[in-house]
Amino acid sequence: MNYPVRFGLILLSVLVCAYLLVPTAVQPLPDWWQRKFYKDRVKLGLDLQGGTYLLLEVQLEEALTSSVDRNLQILGNAAQEKSYEFKIKERPTSTRAVIVTNDASEKMLGTLIENEYPIFKRNPLTASEGKVEFELELTGAEALRIRQSSMDQSLEMMRNRIDAFGVSEPTIQRQGDDKVAIQLPGLKDPRRAEDIIGRTAKLDFKLLDQEAMGKVDLQSEIAKTSQADPKVTDDIHLLNEALKGIIPDDAQVLYQRDEDQSTGRVTRFPVLVRKVAALTGEDLDDARVNFDQFSVPYVSLTFNKKGGKLFADFTGEHVGDQLAIVLDETVYSAPRINEKIEGGHAQITGSFSTDEAHDLAIVLRSGALPAPVKIAERRIVGPSLGQDSIRNGLYAMAVGAALVAVFMLFYYRLSGIIAVVAVGFSLALIAACLTLFKATLTLPGLAGIALTIGMSVDANILIFERIKEELGLGKGGRAATDAGYKRAFLTILDANITTLITSVILFQFGTGPIRGFAVTLSVGLLANMFTAVFVCRTLQNFIMDKFGIRKVSV
Question: Exposed (0-12), middle (13-18) or buried (19+): which is 307, by Cβ within 10 Å?
Answer without folding.
Answer: buried
